[in-house]
Amino acid sequence: MTARSDRHILAILTPARIGDTLLHAALAEARATGARLTVVYLEDQDRQEHLRECLTTRGFVGAGQTRAIGDLAHACAQSAGAERLAEVSAAAQEAGVPCVTRMASGRFADSILRLATDLGADRVFVSRGRIGPLSRLFGERDFTRLRRHLGPALQLVEPELRDSQP
Amino acid sequence: MAQPQPSPPSVSPPAPPAARQFEIDRRPIAIVLLSRLKRQLWLAFVVTCFALLLRVPPPDGLAQAGWNTLCIFALCGTLWVTSLLPLAITSLVAIASLPLFGVMRAEEAYQFFGSKVVFFVLGAFMLSAALIGSGLSKRLATLTVRAFGGTPRRLVLAVFGLCAVASTVMSGHAVAAMVFPIVLDIARAMKLKALRSRMGAALFFALAWGCIIGSSLTVLGGGRGPLAIGLLEEATGHAWTITFMEFIAFGAPLVVLMLAVGAVMLAWRFPPEVASTADAIAVLEGRLRDMGKMSGRERAVALVLVVTIAAWAALGDTLGIANIAILAMAALFALGAVTWPEVEENVNWGVIVMYGGAIALGSAMDRSGAALWLTEAVLGGRELSPLVLMMVIALLSGTLTELMSNSAVVAMLMPPALTLAEHYGLDPRAMTMCIVLPSGFAFMFPISTPVTAIAWSAGYYTPRQVAQSGLWLNLIGFGCVFLLMKFWWPLLGVLWAP
Questions:
Q1: Nearest by CB to B6, which of A88, A99, A114?
Q2: Which of A94, A105, B337, B424 is buried most, with the most CB atoms less than 10 Å from its CB?
């Protein structure tokens, strides 16, 4: 096993299935370099806002119901995140990688940049399978921003069927 | 070599709000401004185009008032599609623009808020609020799912059937919001994992599809039906309407076929991986125990609901569906079955504003000759077969509804489509139904409609799954609409105007 280094890897998990691939890659690198790993489950605030906007502007759902649905969706994301992070902890322990897990919620790119700065991450693993091929059209701005701020520290993980690196 | 000791993994609660941090945006100032003011810039662009169009002289065969109406229609259509402004605000813009640009007098424009359709929708939404506020809807939903959910497959079908049936008497959106916590409890009790459980996906797809399909059966299923009827009545000078029972008769075979297709799709694409529903049934029984016995308030709501629906069905033509709706509202308050705060919480008043403006704009399109000019310009002298024409309009309606509110689709397509119906000698009721029915088919995107957005928010399926299943349902839905036009409506005497 590699000796522990000062390197710090940040892995951002989202509800997407590509999270498994991302975690595998982050664990492998942490193990190979002896880096510490922090896995953050990110609840995308934009998704909540899309939901609220859809309920109130597309279908005229009442304010009370909109609030209730928003709260339930948030609770769903939190419980899915907690479940996922428990699996991550078990996998990290099995791989012998020091790992801290936590939940966060906020805008996708903002949150990742803030976490990377706060934690002083040397490497940031982010997946790009969130909305499939549509991400090329609509999610690209976030990734451009991440690339600009994080530079080579950013490691994009994408589904194998598509090209591996932009 | 020292072995790294894994630190104890921890799942921390959401962190408290951190001290405000600033990020220096190093992009050129022009890019920063463009990205921050994108919405306002688009709005300015749309309004500038509108202003430039107004300055263009009207084309041959169209008066200045007609041209102005067409420009307002283009402006509102763009705003409805792009959602640069909320739908209701766009409708207000429409209603204020009509007198401002000399299309109709202010008194005429604003009187459309008094349309009976607006009051019918208000009554239906208040009835829905009473059902939710009293807890009756939740009790009935829980009882139904418990009674029929003996096996995993039957549980999925119970949710599907419940949502479909409930959406015939309440707005599909309200049903989805009401059933969502119940399905969520079931999924949690059965320990179904988000994105990994086929059973979980099946339950939430059943919720969404049941609401979408069921809400097409009656005018109570959503606002689009009443809005279309209001536009039909205004455009034909109240010579034509669609009664409560006629609406059901026109769409019933479609709903039955789509329910069958939906049930097969659920079984085919999401075969349950669990063997028992015992945990779910236990949760539902716990919910019922917590609810206790049926309260007097729930009984009162049930009574008003049954009497109102019977009156809409039997006396809607003579008493008027809006009058019945208003009497039902009064009865609910008189019996103490609903309170004003509950109504405020469960009714989105934007719907009233949206419908008033949409009906005013539709009427102006018809009166000013703008709708006729538009259809002639689009057809360009070509004569299509009436069936092909109606299918094209149905396809347009079903496609647009994936991208925008179904009420907005109805508001945009109805005025020119009714003019086309007149041109082709088609029964305007057939044209109305071939817009209204597909306008509900928002199966393909997770946020096409509140119903799909609510189901998707649970996180049990991916957008890709929605698109794949939704595409099939949309295609089959269009096929069913074609069958209705070809075989069912002629049987009812609804294809050609007498």
A1: A99
A2: B337
